[in-house]
């Protein structure tokens, strides 16, 4: 994704307004309208731009993957799956002001399994296995189509890896993630706000491969 001059200006304006305490939705709508941004550009502002205080609050919760050793790990299933899949499909990604990696697909509730799904899940489980968590559970939003089947596939992969773990389709995945996890794997801002320790598997995965399609908002 190439950043136009107007998008760079929009990023700076959004930061300024957030720093002054304005509501995120209102900021994105106002700045997006001013610069006539498209849906993807507005999503970049919404998901990636933070004021200094909130950016630091999130970044301070970011932990290295080895922290999961001996801990209960809760995985925000759709969030992690979709972001890693975006990397493999070379879709646009952003390294956000709060130092988390996020995608711009906006397909959370509309995710459909493909031939790539099993591959992505295996890669995520492969990243977890060497660090031997006490227990790991993947949580999926039950209201999303085929979540039960996705949870079943995930559970099989977790068990095949020899991990003590499970995968569940639940009514409120965010609440279940926070309730279970001593460490949370997600880049979802709502979860990061409420969690104490957070792992970003997308960032870890990017370290293992060459990928040039990421926009680093921290450099703007």
Task: Kindly describe this structure.
There is one protein chain. This protein has 220 residues and is an alpha/beta fold. The chain folds into two domains: 5-49; 65-219, Rossmann fold, CATH 3.40.50. 47% of the residues lie in helices and 15% in strands. It is built from ten helices and eight strands. It has helices spanning 5-19, 24-35, 39-48, 52-59, 77-88, 117-128, 147-160, 173-180, 189-194, 201-206; strands at 72-76, 93-95, 101-103, 135-141, 165-170, 183-185, 198-199, 214-216. The strands form two sheets. It has a five-stranded parallel β-sheet with strand order 5-4-1-6-7. A three-stranded mixed β-sheet has the order 3-2-8, with helices on both faces. β4 (135-141), α7 and β5 (165-170) form a beta-alpha-beta unit. The radius of gyration is 17 Å and the shape is globular. The relative contact order is 0.18. The model has no long low-confidence stretch (mean pLDDT 95).
Structure summarized in a few sentences:
With 220 residues, the protein is of the alpha/beta class. The chain contains 10 helices and 8 strands.
